[in-house]
Amino acid sequence: KTDIKNNTKVLNLKSSKIQSNIKMQDKKLKGYINLASLHSTINGNLNGDILVSAKISSIKKLISQIKQIYDISKLPNIDGAIQANIKLDKAKNIKLNLASNKITIKDKKKTIAINDIKLDVFKKDNSILIDKYQLNYDDIKVFATKQSKININGDDIILSPLWINDKIQLTGNYNKLQQKGELNAIAKMLHISQKMIDLDSNIDITTSIDNKRIDVNGEIILQGGNIHYNINKKTFASDDDIVIVQELQKKKKAKENDNLNINLQISSNKPLILKQKNIDIKADVDLMINKQGGSEPMMTGAIELQKGGVYNFEGKKLVLDKSY
Questions:
Q1: Residue 276 and residue 285: Cα distance in Å, rounded?
Q2: SS3 9
Q3: How would residue 75 be classed by pLDDT, with cut points 50, 70 and 90?
Q4: Cis-peptide, bond into residue 161, ω within 30° of zero
Q5: What pLDDT is attached to residue 250?
Q6: How far is 47 from 27, CA to CA, in rounded Å?
Q7: 246-275 per-position pLDDT tens digit
Q8: Residue 321: how many CB atoms within 10 A of its CB?
Q9: Which helix (H) or strand (E) holds 249?
Q10: What phi-psi label fits residue 27: left (phi over 0), alpha (psi between -120 and 50 degrees) or beta?
């Protein structure tokens, strides 16, 4: 629809699936687009900035509606609400601010819940700049306030760097055509806090990718921590928990594991501490995780209980000597 007198162009759509009304006059845009659970507004100037504000009340409902128009059957079963603001400037740079309280991803076996999601990202030319992000999964918070940078140059993807928890610095490159690349993860005094444990560690791990082959090599040096697992809690296995080893051996090994090789050293500079009502011990770790080709992962090494540890059992105080 065009109004020649006012030099105005109008895009007006109304149906059971989509509704929109966008007006353009003297390069100025203003309007809205609604599709299922997506409600968005647009405002700006073709010679300047264009702002889009979008709110998705249900990702599941939106995907269901889009499936009637496009084939997106490969998308996972995902749901949740998203609020997004997008800015497109004259130079075609894009700025995105995204937030969601909770997103769930379901498969046949389990449901994954990701909470407290926030993302600020800026695309300029061939670079993607992530100013900051955060999410919470299984009571583990993943975030970065340091700026991450991803360069895309043809088939090459270059991380320079990508930050995780402001401590893990990921650098490397990957060529999509050749399916080859290398990723380096380095961190000093990385703090991990979970229900079972709080610990600090230094990480230096290199992952090499050559087609389907993946090689993981490096070391993790524990810098001390506290174990929260309740060792006094007594639990008994149910029938569902009992696994017959022979039955497991009959199962076919996953083909993707045949291409995974691991050589990972785990040691400790400072001990892990387990201190509860009836126990007070310190442990040093010296372990190696190894996996070659189609074999199962194998852990070798020792966990040393330091001399002087205490365990109170039925009114008796047991003092440990050095143990393994």
A1: 20
A2: strand
A3: confident
A4: yes
A5: 46
A6: 7
A7: 455 445 445 556 899 999 999 999 999 988
A8: 9
A9: helix 245-250
A10: left
